[in-house]
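Question (not urgent): is this output format expected?
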Amino acid sequence: MRARRAAGVLLLAGAVAGLGAGPAQAQEYRYWSFWDGRPAAGGAAGAWAYATEGPGTARPADGAVVGFRFTVSVDSAKAAGPRTAPDFAALCDRTPARAGSKRVGVVIDFGTAADAPSGERPPAGRTACAQVPADASAGEALAAVAKPLRYDADALLCGIAGYPRSGCAEQVSGGGAEPTATPAAPRAAGKDDDGGPSAGLVGGIGAVVVLGATGVWQARRRRG
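Got this back:
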């Protein structure tokens, strides 16, 4: 089973790399993107940065803010971030610190009506303060405040708090732009109601896939 999955991942990774080698139409995908909140100096509002690793492996510190945005885009450079600023004080001011745990602000933006799958309407955005164990991942912080999470058979995060009801990182349309030559980078993934990853478009190619880290992460979760 793992061997077949690994072989499929290698083939898919090769196909993705091949897309960057010559002219091709960039494809748009509908998916949950994952963001890191960056605080601003001087009391100004913070800003969002597209996360460099998946929420299954990212372990935010106490006082961090993570964001999830349902979006349609060709690549991470064009992805729209959450529309609520990453303000830890505003999110967690009523959650007292507790020994052995950490507080992580969570912002969930369900996207726009234009990005919604056919027949669905995005819920209003929500925010929360997740109080989780000190070593918890961003995915575990999400699961603490936004169940149910929905995954596909390959452990790709498809829905947050029941949205969308179906579908998972499906291709939406093709455009005329050419993708860059940078291949998509791996994003860790896990299938567990206690935490997991968000699918991201990484490195400039519109490919939303479960890459090689999935099997490793799942195996470690089972052994742990």
